[in-house]
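Exercise 7 asks you to align residues with tokens for two separate proteins.
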Amino acid sequence: MAFALPSALSGRLARGSSGDAQLIRQARLAGPMPWVIAIMVALTVIAAAAGLALSNTARSASDALSGGVTVQIVEANPALRDRQAIAAAGRLQATPGIVSAQIVSQDEIERLIEPWLGGGVGDDEAIPVPALVDVRLRDPVDAETLGALRRLVREVAPAARIDAQSTWLKPVFGAIDSLRWLAVALVVLLGFALAAAVLLAVRSALGVNRDTIEIVHLLGGTDAQVARIFQRSVGIDALGGGILGLLLGVVVVSFFGRRFGDLGAGLVGGGALAWHDWLVLALVPLVGALLAMITARLTVMRALRRML
């Protein structure tokens, strides 16, 4: 004997209206699951913000140092050291493609080395401090350019050592790159964890509503209609938990952003989040809700094929 689906029920399932959820009351992620999603989204926002800040830091430092070269005049004789520094700066200033070549004052050098060697080092003849020339090029420094500058400067300053400023921070850039990939890995793992949590919750809801789902099928309901009920309900709960997690994550990111901002300058100063970074973070709960909905639909469709 065939069962006929009542017209009101059939129309409601076909339209996918909000009243569908009343047919399967436990389709929503009951219990602590929305809070679990909120925590996962908050952690994802924090990890994503860290990755974006590290990317900004590396980009800012690379841009600042890409055209920088430092000339060190390593000479124990102070008079000869000063003459070579002046000669090197003059030769570089007259070279096409060089924006500036400035001799770093002795006072500034002492301020730079004071945290490590203490004050008054420049007056101690036993510890000769090299003269420094800060050079800025119009274009980024490559190996060929650096070699040409070495040959040029050593003609007038045999004691000169020339290094690209970016090479000093290569280990730092390597560490930043590793941390950035770690942040990406954490975001991916948290995405898998969210999908796994939704999968378990949906399976539990399917078990609770097994009898109701069988009745809906006997009345003419399809797998897609049942899956749509779970998909929409899960999406609403996941979006609510995601928004809560976003707010929590933004509070944490803002707190640490102010703390690091108090450091003022250096590498940390270039890691501030731009408006487009905040836009990316705002998309996290939407992506999380979409992932939860897709996971719920696939889980329900697969389970129904096995169940019925």
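Second protein for Exercise 7:
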Amino acid sequence: MTPTPPPAPEYRIEDLAHRSGATVRTIRAYQDKGLLPKPERRGRANVYDDSHLARLRQIADLLERGYTLASIKELLQAWDEGRGLGRVLGLVAEVDGPWSDEESGHVSRAELDELFGGERDEAAVAEAVALGVLEPLPGKDGVFRVPSPQELSVAAELHRAGVPLLAITEQLRELRGQVEHIAARFLEFTDEHVFARYTGPHLAGADASEAADLVRRLRPLAQQTVEAELARAMQKLATRSLRAHLRSAGASTTAPAPGAAPRTEQVRLPAGTVEAVRDLVGESRTPAFIAAAADREVRARMMDRMAAEHGKGGTERVDHAEHAERAAGPAPGD
């Protein structure tokens, strides 16, 4: 005789709360939101079974992974429709997972102050926390999680170079907005040309696996593209800026007046002239050469004017002598 299998476990809501770790209030909220199937009604009592317990454990696991209740509802709906929750979760994990190989770190407040030269700036720390550069660890006073140690290292290096802390955080805030715009454009591009066939209302398990593989392959391309374009733009703009500074320095001349303290004024010269001088004497000697050439030209013109004035004065003296001789008449005996 075949033994009768034991009856499936049944739970009242209080028992289900105890077994799952959720509160009675939470279970009822999940039912209202459609996350948990309705229990069987027996008279005035609601009866739950192991499927409800399993669902509550799934929800708790997804919440720990950082999903919102709205996202969890969509995932569980995919499971209920037979689309393979595991494969759908694989796709979501690829998208939600780290997009960088960098590992997070931890830093104490004392280490943070030392990293930034012993300066204790509460406003800058608050800004860093607001931007997510630092994340306070619960239960550990004065200890922070650092999602990107590289980013913190860049900030420390900029501060050592003389950049104020609040200026660094303000620059990061502005940069983040610009980078998020680039990321949005990249996602729009890939959605249109790559992922459009995977965004229908009924994503099959095989499609979810294929989409997850695509995300895995394309994910590093975004970073590589931005790095290449940033390097190109930095080289172009830095070279342009340096040339502008050099032209400005090459056009500066010093022309002190006799007996007066030297003073410097900026003079604009044709770019071709500065380039020709630079080719002739080298970068470092260009300002001195231009100043010396200008000084020599001024002195030459002054000498020419003095000679001209001297010649004119001599001619006038000769003319005066001849006029006097004519006025006096012929000398006696002539």
